[in-house]
């Protein structure tokens, strides 16, 4: 059984990231959820989504949390409010389509998924080795940015940058292959 630290009750075997996200949730989630419920008009599911996204953004932006508790809480509330507003704007511009009938189910066809898999592999081959390596570690290896940085012996910022550019290049390659539709600008 894991030994718990006396001050937080968190497991001593947890990583620093896991401890941070648990501490964030324990300290702020209830207050943020109540605020999100007010902002969403009582829609508990939307409120929960907004709180989770806010806490995830806080975890990714840990320098904010290192500041004073008042500053961190203000940042959390501001981020939550922005998240709810962004989601409201998205729904307003892209209304949900409700149909009375469900589309017919097609028989399982593995040809399409196999073909798409081949196209993705070909698109990955077009990436530079550094970009492909970071994508493989983070997406296929399931590693966080920090874990990938440690494994590849490069700074975490470099991993983030390579991921950004690798995803852009992969998207472009998939658009050229016809797997992904080009977005109209």
UniProtKB/TrEMBL annotation:
UniProt xrefs under InterPro entries: RNA_pol_sigma-70-like, RNA_pol_sigma-70_dom, RNA_pol_sigma70_r2, RNA_pol_sigma70_r4, RNA_pol_sigma_r2, RNA_pol_sigma_r3/r4-like, WH-like_DNA-bd_sf
UniProt entry keywords in alphabetical sequence: DNA-binding, Sigma factor, Transcription, Transcription regulation
Which Gene3D superfamilies did the record assign?
1.10.1740.10, Winged helix-like DNA-binding domain superfamily/Winged helix DNA-binding domain
Taxonomy, superkingdom: Bacteria
An example of a GO molecular function for this protein is:
DNA binding
Q: Where does the RNA polymerase sigma-70 region domain lie?
A: 26-92, 123-171
Biological process (GO) annotations?
DNA-templated transcription initiation
Note the Pfam families from the entry. Sigma70_r2 (PF04542), Sigma70_r4 (PF04545)
| Transmembrane stretches, start-end | none
Instruction: State the similarity comment.
Output: Belongs to the sigma-70 factor family. ECF subfamily.
Q: What NCBIfam families would the database entry show?
A: sigma70-ECF (TIGR02937)
Q: What is this protein called?
A: RNA polymerase, sigma-24 subunit, ECF subfamily
Q: What is the lineage of its organism?
A: Bacteria, Bacillati, Actinomycetota, Actinomycetes, Glycomycetales
